[in-house]
Amino acid sequence: MTKETIMDALNRCEPYAIPDCCAGCPYNDCWDTKEECITKLHSDAHTLLKAQEPRVMTLEEVEHLTYGSPYIIETNLPKEEPRLMYGLFSHLGLQGNFSFAFTDGRGYLFDVDYGKRWRCWTSRPDEKVRADTPWE
């Protein structure tokens, strides 16, 4: 189910939101009882929310970033504290060289260092998530 479908169903299930809330609900035709409908809606909403949690992207996902895509990079460079950097993806260079535009210039990172010296996140992680996610 799409985000819009789940939101529509959740809005209909809000107490007193829509009289006869099951009429027109995208989950209504799929299940025999209202309890089954609500259980499936709950499961789909949970799956949708879990997918939005920050996670480290795979190198393949990073390789498919397009020009201008926003990114969040965490670095783990020698003699530096790990830090998050934000910006827009520039391009995939030659031989596994990634080019990222930072606020203070341009950075070049290599695919062989992915997961060891740098990694991309799907969204901004909090400090606990960062600390609990091991580097290679």
Q: What is the number of strand segments?
A: 5
- Supply the helix-strand structural class: alpha+beta
The amount of helix comes to: 25-40%
Taking all Cα atoms into account, the compactness measure Rg is: 21 Å
How many helices? The count is 4
Calculate the terminal CA-CA distance, rounded to whole Å.
34 Å
Oligomeric state of the chains?
single chain
Compute the number of structural domains: 2
pLDDT averaged over residues: 82
Biggest sheet, spatial arrangement of strands: 4-3-2-1-5
Mind describing the biggest β-sheet?
Answer: 5 strands, antiparallel
Tell me, briefly, the overall form.
elongated
The name of the CATH topology of the largest domain is SH3 type barrels
Order of helices and strands: HHHEEEEEH
* Unreliable stretches covering 5 or more consecutive residues: none
CATH architecture field of the largest domain: Roll
Top CATH class of the largest domain: Mainly Beta
Question: In percent terms, what proportion of residues is strand?
Answer: 15-25%
Describe this structure in words.
The chain has helices spanning 3-13, 34-51, 59-63, 127-132; strands spanning 70-75, 83-92, 97-102, 105-110, 118-121. It is α+β, with helices and mostly antiparallel strands and 136 residues long. The chain folds into two domains: 3-51; 59-132, SH3 type barrels (Roll). A five-stranded antiparallel beta sheet has the order 4-3-2-1-5. The model has no long low-confidence stretch (mean pLDDT 82).
